[in-house]
Amino acid sequence: MYGGLSMKFQQLKHFKALAEIRHYAKTAKYLCISQSYLSTSILNLEKEIGFSLFDRNNRNVVLNRNGTIFLEFVNRLLELLDEGIEYVREMNENYSYVNIGILPEVSSLLGPKFFSSIDLNHENERIKVNVKKISKYSKDLFQDLKNFKLDIIFTTKDNINFDKKILDYSSACPSNPRETLNNIVLVPVLNQKFVLLVSKNHELSRYESIRISQALNYPFIKYTDNTSLDDYVQSLFEITNNRIYDVSYTVDTYELAAGLAASGLGIAIVPDLPYLDYIDAHKINISYPVYSRTIYMAIIKNDHINPQTKKVYNEVFKYAKKNNLISKNFKYKLHL
């Protein structure tokens, strides 16, 4: 029941068919039901929604103004239902795929080389890891995980208040974010270091290591608000009770930030990735605050995880254990 209505999809299909055929007897024959059953179904639908849908003339019927408008919405609803059925059917048929979501600045670290280093064979079949979504927003990844569009995500939780709101995303979830947090398992997978990037002829290029406070007088290249990178940089400055005073550019990605910094159009805090070795810029280690961020593997904790997803999770879990990224008290392993 929705909004006080108890209409059935069957009634909507009856309405759609009658609207197109415009004849009770022919419509009933098409639907393989009796004419009286069809008539009762339409009358009940009109009674429930509170307005008539047809102008009747003996056995011929024509949509009235209400019916014409209502038909547009019914068509959209039934099409959406068909799409949903087809999507779930395809998802079940492609069980050997594990759909993951990932931050762009993490994808180069957890790419083909990483997944080729773990065992992805299950019952003599090679599991296919499908990078279905790359998003600069942790919020988007958590939402798609909660909506079962993604099986596993690799992301951060730099801003815990921000993440609690996301984990309390669904109205069906408990009102207490801590309860909702228990539905998602977060496994630390790696630590990501950040550096300050400047052009090779910049005043700061004489340094190999620097305190963040020494860079405050220079124009910064800032990241778009609420992106994962912006969360990290803001946290970095909060530790030192400082903020960016002069912004030369605002960008979405670390590649853009690095390119602008290399061109002398500002300085940028960027993740220390292999990509930086291929651009003409100077990389400076940040000596204070010493603050790296943790990349987590996140998965929904429920009883309906397919075996392939469990296999990928457990292999990454083993990798994290082997590299001492998980505390000894953390023992959440999925049983195949």
UniProtKB/TrEMBL annotation:
Residues 7-64 form the HTH lysR-type domain. Pfam families: HTH_1, LysR_substrate. The keyword DNA-binding applies. It comes from the Bacteria. The keyword DNA-binding applies. Keywords: DNA-binding, Transcription, Transcription regulation. Gene3D superfamilies: 3.40.190.290, Winged helix-like DNA-binding domain superfamily/Winged helix DNA-binding domain. One of its GO terms (molecular function) is transcription cis-regulatory region binding. Belongs to the LysR transcriptional regulatory family. This is Transcriptional regulator, LysR family. It comes from Peptostreptococcus anaerobius.
